[in-house]
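WARN retry 2 of 3 for item q-0093 after timeout on previous attempt; input resubmitted unchanged.
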Amino acid sequence: MHLQEPWRTTCCFPWCQPWVKRLMTSCPTPLHAATGSLGRRSSRIWYDCAKKVRLMIPFGVGALYVRHHLSSITQNLTLQMVEDVSAAFRDMLVEASWIDPATLKEALHKLDEMQHLVAFPPHALIDHLLEEYHQGFTLQIPEVKKNDHFGNMLALTAWQCHKSLLKLTSPESQDSWPRGPLDINAFYSALRNAIVIPQGVLQPPIFIPEKLTALNYGSLGSIIGHETTHGFDSTGRMRDAHGNLNHWWTNTTRQQYINRTQCFVKQYSTYDVAPLLPPHQQLDHELMISGERTLAENIADNGGLRAAWVAYQRRVKKDGRAHTLSLPGLQHFTSDQLFFISFAKVWCNNITPFALQYILKADVHVPGYFRILGVLRNSPAFAEAFKCPIGSPMNPKEKCLLW
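OK item q-0093 returned
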């Protein structure tokens, strides 16, 4: 899509901009903070109000943001990366010698049919489509009452429920977005066989709108690969190209798949997260990861990095090394090394003891530290880039490989 400058200065679809402003000003004032916005006693009122509005009318707010902040460079580079990673994953499927021809045919068909919803939905730039999507909005909510924030939220919820019920009688378009473009989280929709890379993800430190190939492919590329791999993880593999539950694996290949995934189960089940706790909160017992519960995400992490690496190598070969990096303070790292550093920074975080224990009990993801460690230990390319000796902690002789 070629983006013209005029739309940047034109008004958004008529009712949205003033309506959003009125809704924001109807939020509780600091004097009411004790009651708690979003259930918290201590709160940032402006943040919670913005979050509520974004969650309740995601495509209206998203359209406002996209029209003022979208760059054609960002969109074009992202689409290029999606195509590159998808092509890399296709070759990874073909090179998987353990897949028999019949299953491979279905796997390639599923990959070819996978939708790529990138940056924002098409109607974000077209007023009459936005009006159509929000049909009945102003009838349900004719005005925002400045001193009745609770009533405003009830009216918004009623409109959302009405719109949701309408979906029961009208088929949803295949290219419709399940969430708004400002989500700071990419995801795979198994029911639609679609990956979604929202505009909210396309910003630093995940993505830089320049041809910094190593950095962008290491971070955003691995995320694209992660979501693509979800279509073929331990749960995604059970659905076909159209998102329907379907047994499209031959028994032989299915057993090969299960055997190979057990390597990941065993690997991640050896990780103790207790050392991540601060010294004054250390425990006298281990906090072990469940390799079984986190299997699908670990498969996606490992497959995603490999797909991004293959895509990155091909892009460098195609464009030449004109965009090799020499970053201030990091001149001693090669571009290949910066690719892996960029991948690692995505999951580099601090975590509270409560959050750590919650992740272990309820989350299907492993803590960020082990999302980095587990994947890089399985990557021959990482070991080669950093010259890790065979048998060293980051280059074990036995590595897990599925895709």
